[in-house]
Amino acid sequence: MISDRLLQGIPFCLLLTLLAGALGGSCASAKERSRDFGDNVQERGNFNNSRLTFIGTKKGTVAFIGGSITEMNGYRPMVCQILKRRFAETEFKFIDAGIASTCSTTGAFRLASDVGPVDLLFIEFAVNDDQDAHHTREECIRGMEGIIRHARRLNPNVDIVVTFFVNEAMLRMLSDGKTPLTSEAHEAVASHYDVPTINLAKEIAGEINKGSLTWEQYGGVHPAPRGNSICASMIDDLFSRMWIHPAAGSAITPCAMPDPLDPLNYERGRFIDLAKAKVVSGWTLGVPDWAHLPGGKRDRFTSMPMLSATEPGAELTLDFDGSAVGAYVVAGPDAGQVRASVDGGPFGTVNLYHAFSAGLHYPRTVMFATDLKPGHHTLRLRTDSETQSAGHAARIMQFVAN
Fold it and tell me: Are β-strands 41-42 and 197-198 bridged in parallel, bridged antiparallel, or unpaired?
């Protein structure tokens, strides 16, 4: 076996040409391996801590958080194969924390429970922050900055990579020489924290404009093997650039934690157990009767106990600590509106129904308050009599607080 210490600067896909068929296309073609990705692979920071951990301890924990692009059998398993071949003597634990439809806001609140402390973290939310959440720049920054700061609080030595995938609307913007809002906001956060980025979106737009690739060949919003292999090759290229020098003599160095871009970012985001809520009327805790509910369901949610109400006027209270509060919900064809008040303040209305709710019980995080004074608070929540859907339902998987 070739020592991993001798191979730190070599792109491993270059060594796997003969194995590509056996790996089911998990490595890029020779043309893709030799491509110059230029500044679409953005080197930043030290990025040596994970390598030193993998070599020194022979163990490593690597996580991928994002939406369906991360959850699918795409770039994630390809990158896992690259790491296993770069560090053949290392025992890896790989965490797939991709959940379809979710955005960086949801990611920030589930980081602690779904990821935890890791050595290397890949983040992918540019597409879902755009087409699913329709985030403002502020919301993009609060979610992404929250994930990065929280990850560094869990492990100050963590190496992080942020990747920008692409949808049709983002592709049109890039083809016109414009930068999509979500990737621009995520890039601003990554730059602030010296985090490397993989601008797959810009790379694909450039290839399509040159005529060397089509959108169909790339595979669309959920890339085909060819599209995912381009992303994996770009990440492999980042490894080669950042790990070109021998690891010997280097030391693990905690990552810097500069002042936040947005003090209201979700770096202390967490779930709150549903059992902590105090039901006043109309709410029940249990697994919904999915068989009798119209709309598509995803298996990961159908056995999960939820705090549910289906009639207007159902009310509960929740005590929490922090500066923000919301709920991680599934919102289907019958999703209604809720009215929320904190510490006896005025009620505000939050619509749970989403553009994709008509045919799917859609996972999303809704916020009731985001700029509270840090400390102890009480949320009062009730289902509204008005609705923009076929019903008044609210199904809460977790409360969230920051």
Answer: antiparallel
CA angle 39, 44, 49 (to 5 degrees): 135
CA 291 to chain centroid, in Å, comes to 30
26: closest CA among 44, 39, 13, 37? 13
Residue 297 CA: distances (Å) to CA of 284, 294, 306: 20, 9, 14
Sequential pLDDT tens for the chain (402 residues): 334 333 444 444 444 333 333 333 334 444 554 578 999 999 999 999 999 999 999 999 999 999 999 999 999 999 999 999 999 999 999 999 999 999 999 999 999 999 999 999 999 999 999 999 999 999 999 999 999 999 999 999 999 999 999 999 999 999 999 999 999 999 999 999 999 999 999 999 999 999 999 999 999 999 999 999 999 999 999 999 999 999 888 899 999 999 999 999 999 999 999 999 999 999 999 999 999 999 999 999 999 999 999 999 999 999 999 999 999 999 999 999 999 999 999 999 999 999 999 999 999 999 999 999 999 999 999 999 999 998 999 999 999 999
Q: Which two tokens stand for residue 291?
A: 């068989």
Task: Tell me the three-class secondary structure of the chain, residue by residue.
Answer: CCCHHHHCCCCHHHHCHHHCCCCCCCCCCHHHHCCCCHHHEECCCCCCHHHHHHHHHCEEEEEEEECHHHHCCCHHHHHHHHHHHHCCCCEEEEEEEECCCCCHHHHHHHHHHHCCCCCEEEEECHHHHHHCCCCCHHHHHHHHHHHHHHHHHHCCCCEEEEECCCCHHHHHHHHCCCCCHHHHHHHHHHHHCCCCEECHHHHHHHHHHHCCCCHHHHCCCCCCHHHHHHHHHHHHHHHHHHCCCCCCCCCCCCCCCCCCCCCCCCCCCEEECHHHCEEEECCEEECCCHHHCCCECCHHHHCCCEEEECCCCCEEEEEEEECCEEEEEEECCCECEEEEEECCCCCEEEECCCCCCCCECEEEEEEEECCCCCEEEEEEEEECCCCCCCCCEEEEEEEEEC
Q: Is the CA virtual torsion 107, 112, 115, 117 positive or negative?
A: positive
Contact between 232 and 78 (Cβ < 8 Å):
yes
Q: Give the tokens for residue 39.
A: 């500044």
